UniProtKB/TrEMBL annotation:
This is DUF885 family protein. The lineage of its organism: Archaea, Methanobacteriati, Methanobacteriota, Stenosarchaea group, Halobacteria. PANTHER family: DUF885 FAMILY LIPOPROTEIN, GLR0591 PROTEIN. It comes from the Archaea. Pfam families: DUF885 (PF05960).
Length: 537
């Protein structure tokens, strides 16, 4: 019988072989030139692998495993249940974006990080060459009557942005490897033609698409219970979200009235958004606020910062602008060396009209930049991942809990409010608005997947309550329909972390130390907060 560590290694290798794009994203580069096998045979093989590894992990007696292995066994079984539910939804038959996102990520991730490496461009060429067959298989595998209409629309939007990336972004990037440039350009032209053909296929699907995107109450509850390890069902979560929407709105109205008596929070927030850096100063503004957040962590002794971590702020390359219209943080892959992160800032497009440029700058308000700097960088996702890379087991490097990942991001905003960097009313209002958005997500998430809420109703709710622009809200809803429970993880995670901290504080009494709590929390890398609470308390 294989040892526990050998079983983990076999599971990860099997996962990467079936999901080569995920392997690239994680920093495992032996599959960089591959796209995943698709079709019924590959899907059946993967489902059998999930069942086989579930049996193998269940066979280990926790009492005979060491501490880390016991945690990893529990987490592996949770992850396998999530993968099983994903397979039950048959995305290869029902979700056009299942193929398009795989392509986009598979090509795009090879251009991140050390973007001058020749082997990455050789892999890029191999993946581009595989695009026509990959999309041809997608056409023969998708079952039009089972495709939800909203997923057809999402697929059509994605084909346009993906084709633009292949038409413009890849040839631009290929200039860094002159001896491969002509081959890459030719392959990108063939790939673009295949994407155009797939777009025509999706138009033919529109009239026949009649599927349901909802994961259903049973699977939704299984995700909450068996993957996120929560003691709540869909109804509990829905009410939790509604309560937080009301709480956020009440506090925001109070703060807005204090800033401008008689004004509502929407009016005041729009005024706050008009205070922003000049277009040419955006990159420097993000750098200044990022360093301010780091200094705040050090000054208030909030958390241990690993030696060697660093962040650089760069303008977003042109081929990434469509995918990341505001900014994009990038942390080094968990299986690669180094603790350096980047933050790409998308500047104003000089070809847009005056109103579009003005709206873009409003999205980069000072209040937004300060609130997001600690969420994304210090002590948020960048620092979290830097620590994670140093302490995580291989299993935890590949599979992370969104409850902890996204909950920690929101927690850092609350932490900076408590320690003074976000305590100005204008900054607090922006922070709460971001929290409100996450609370409305819960109502939408549970509504879409367990309460027969339509995509149109979900969009209206995001526009009316979270005050998102309609186009932005439509894009959000399309993503929520494919990721049940993930949109809820932000506010759930924040609540769990705040509750855990309070119980930890009560247990420690006068010996409580905030930095010690954060460091102990980080030592578990990115497991579900409920698992960490069982250990930490």
């Amino acid at each position: 019988m294989a040892t526990f560590d050998e079983t983990v290694d076999e599971f990860l290798e099997t996962y990467w072989r079936h999901h080569p794009v995920e392997a690239t994203h994680a920093g495992v580069h032996r599959y960089d030139g591959d796209l995943p096998d698709t079709g019924p045979g590959a899907a059946r093989e993967w489902r059998e692998a999930v069942d086989r590894f579930t049996e193998r992990f269940e066979a280990f007696d926790p009492a005979e495993l060491d501490h880390d292995a016991r945690l990893d066994r529990r987490w592996a079984l949770a992850v396998l249940e999530k993968l099983r539910i994903d397979a039950e939804m048959r995305p290869w038959e029902r979700a056009p974006r299942h193929y398009l996102d795989t392509l986009g990520n598979g090509l795009h991730d090879l251009l991140l990080g050390d973007r001058a490496r020749r082997d990455r461009f050789e892999a890029l060429l191999a993946r581009l060459d595989a695009v026509p067959e990959f999309l041809s298989t997608a056409e023969s595998t998708l079952d039009p009557p089972s495709v939800p209409p909203v997923w057809v629309d999402a697929g059509l939007r994605t084909t346009r942005t993906l084709r633009q990336f292949v038409d413009d972004g890849i040839p631009e990037a290929a200039g860094r490897v002159p001896d491969l440039e002509s081959d890459i350009v030719a392959a990108s032209e063939r790939a673009a033609d295949a994407i155009t053909a797939f777009e025509a296929f999706l138009h033919s699907v529109e009239a026949r698409a009649d599927g349901d995107f909802a994961v259903g109450r049973d699977r939704f509850d299984r995700l909450l219970r068996d993957y996120h390890l929560l003691e709540m069902d869909a109804d509990d979560l829905h009410e939790f979200g509604r309560e937080w929407v009301d709480r956020y709105e009440r506090e925001m109205e109070t703060i807005a009235d204090g800033i401008d008596p008689g004004s509502d929070w929407v009016t005041v927030l729009e005024r706050i958004k008009r205070d922003h850096p000049a277009a040419e100063d955006l990159r420097q503004a993000y750098e200044d606020e990022t360093m301010l957040a780091r200094e705040h962590c050090v000054e208030h002794d909030l958390i241990t910062i690993p030696d060697g971590e660093e962040v650089s702020i760069e303008w977003t390359p042109s081929y990434m602008r469509d995918a990341y219209p505001i900014a994009k943080p990038w942390t080094t892959a968990p299986f690669e060396e180094g603790l350096a992160g980047k933050w790409y800032v998308t500047g104003v497009d000089p070809t847009e009209d005056d109103e579009a440029r003005a709206e873009h700058l409003r999205d980069h308000s000072w209040a937004w930049i300060r609130a997001i700097a600690q969420h994304e960088m210090y002590p948020g996702h960048h620092l979290h991942m830097a620590v994670h890379k140093q302490v995580a087991t291989p299993l935890r490097k590949q599979f992370t809990s969104p409850i902890f990942v996204e909950g920690w991001g929101l927690y850092t905003e609350e932490l900076f409010y408590e320690t003074g960097l976000l305590d100005e009313p204008e900054l607090r209002l922006m922070q709460l608005r971001n929290g409100l958005w996450r609370a409305v997500r819960i109502v939408v998430d549970t509504g879409l997947h367990t309460r027969e809420m339509t995509a149109e109703e979900a969009t209206d709710l995001l526009v009316d309550r979270a005050r998102l622009e309609r186009r932005w809200a439509e894009t959000e809803v399309q993503r929520y329909t494919t990721r049940p429970t993930y949109p809820s993880s932000y506010r759930i995670g924040l609540t769990q972390l705040m509750d855990l901290r309070e119980t930890y504080r009560e247990q420690r009494g006068e010996a409580y130390d905030r930095k010690e709590f954060h460091d102990e929390l980080m030592a578990y890398s990115i497991l579900p907060v409920g698992m960490i609470a069982d250990e930490l308390l």
